[in-house]
Amino acid sequence: MNWTNLFKISLKALANNKTRAFLTMLGIIIGVASVITMIAIGQGAKKSIQDQISGMGSNIIMIHPGGERRGGVRLDPSEMQTLKVDDYEALKRESIFLTKVSPSVTASGQLISGNNNYPSSVSGVGIEYLDIRQLNLAEGEMFTETDIRASAKVCVIGTTIRDNLFPDDRNPIGKIIRINQVPLRVIGILESKGYNSMGMDQDDIVIAPYTTVMKRMRAVTYLEGIFASALSEDMTDYATAEIAEILRRQHKLSEDMPDNFEIRSQKELSDILGTTTDLLTTLLACIAGISLLVGGIGIMNIMYVSVTERTKEIGLRMSVGARGIDILAQFLIEAVLISVTGGILGILIGCGASAAVKYIAHWPVDIQTWSAVLSFAVCTVTGIFFGWYPARKASNLDPIDALRYE
Predict the structure, then answer these.
(1) What is the pLDDT of residues 95-107, one digit of tens each?
(2) Considering only Cβ atoms within 10 Å of each terminal Cβ, which end of the chain, N or C, has fewer?
(3) Quick check: pTM over 0.70?
C-alpha cells in the first residue's frame, strides 16, 4: 500500500468535484463554528458574572433574619427581629475567620435636595462596609466611629444619587439631602461601579451610620442584616460555620431548635450562577453539535454517491492489482480530508464569529481553546465514522461486477 499515491488519488478525486466537496464540508464547517461560538458566548457570560461577583467581594457573607412559624404560619424573614447590635458586636469580637463585619439596616423614601428629588434608600452600615463591598471613595471621606456613636446626620452617596440630586453641582460635599424629613450632610462620594450582571445600578446608593438610620429614621432596635468578609474565599465555609455557632449561642438556641437566621455567601451565589451558565453552555453546544451530526451524515451520503459513480473505476483498479484495503483506505482518506479541512475552516470561522459578536454586539465572549480542539477531534472522528461504511462497501465490490457496471 503506497500511502503517498493514495493521498494523491484522493486529492485528485476531490479536486474533480470541488463544488460537491465544498458543500459536503459546509455541514462540518457550520457545526464546528457553531460549537466554538456558542461555547465562547456561554463561557463569556460565566466569566462576566464571576467578575461582577468578585467586584462585589468574592468572600462576602450576608446574614439575614430567618423566617419561622408562628401559629402554623410561616413568617416572612423581613418581619423577623432576631438580629441585634449585640450579635454584630459578638461576631466582631469573637470570630477568627472574619476580617470585617458591618451591620445593615435600610430606610426607603424620597431623597430631596432643593428642587430635585429621587426615590431611593439609605443603608445604615458600619465603617468597614466599604472594605467588605470593595467600594472606594472618589471624593470626601467616610464617616467615623465617633459619627456612629453620635448618630450623626452624615452620609456618603453614589454617582447616580449625585447626578439626580445635584445635576448642576459636580461637588456636592457639604450639601444637605433629606429623606423622611431627616437631613443628611454629604461628606463623601463613591467611585462609580456601573451596573452589575443582574442589571442593578451599583451607584444608586446612600450609606450612613447604622445608628442614624436605626434611631432617627426607623426608630428600631434590631438589624435587617449583617455583612461580613471571610479571611479568603477558601475560608468562607469555615467562616459560615463559625458565624452559625456564635449566633446560635447569642440567641440561646438549643440543639434541637432550628436557626432563626440565614447565612448566604458570594461563593455560594457564584457556584449557583456558574452551574447555571455551564448548563446553558452545554445546551447551546449540544444544539450546535447537531450540525456536526448532520455534516457527518452529509459525508456518508456523498461518499455513497461517489462509490456508485466510480464503481467502474474501482473495478479497473482492483483488476490491475489494487487490494480491498487499498480501496478502503482511499475512500477513508477522502472522507477524512473533507472533515479535517471543514474542521480547520470551521475553527477559523468560529473564532471570527466570536470576535464579531464581541465587538459588534458587545457581548462578553471567552473563546476556549479546548472547544476548538474538541470540535476538531469530533469532526475528524465523524469523517472516519461516517466515511467507513461507504469505503467498506467499495472495498467489497467484486472486480468483474464492477467492470460490468453501467
Answers:
(1) 999 999 999 999 9
(2) C
(3) no
